[in-house]
Amino acid sequence: MASKTQTKPEPTSKPRGGVDCFTEAAECLKVLAHPVRLRVVQLLLHGRFTVGELAEDCQIADNAMSDHLRLLQRCGFLNSERDGRRVYYQIAEPHLQQLMGCVESRFLPADA
Q: Is 109 helix (H, G, I), strand (E, B) or coil?
């Protein structure tokens, strides 16, 4: 009776890093995990906006929007620029473009 020999799959190399390397990433992804903040990132990928403009689009109070923007800035996602009396926010982290592309393709309707 012929015996079947099974070949072991070739071991693959492990990706670099470990669980402890993802602490900061996890914290920043938690910050993004809010519908208002995702919309803010989406808007800011298309231009710069003031607190009031962002708040109006998201239908929330200016002070609530300021809190959202502060969290996004703390993770290094945004920066701000003063122009006279107005403060404009813009994207500081270029990788957000790819991340938002994944979110939009997965969760937005095709005609949105």
A: coil
Q: Evaluate whether 74 touches 88 at the Cβ level (below 8 Å).
A: no
Q: Name the phi and psi angles at 91, rounded to 5.
A: -70, 135
Cα–Cα distances (Å) from 89 to 1, 64, 92, in that order, read: 74, 15, 9
Residue 67 gets the label, from left (phi > 0), alpha (psi -120 to 50) or beta, of alpha
Q: Is residue 6 part of a domain?
A: no
What pTM was estimated for this model as a whole?
0.84
pLDDT in tens, 34-61: 999 999 999 999 999 999 999 999 999 9
- 9: its two tokens: 């799959």
Is residue 5 assigned to a domain?
no
Determine the structural domain holding residue 47 and report its residue range.
21-107
Type of residue at 23 = T
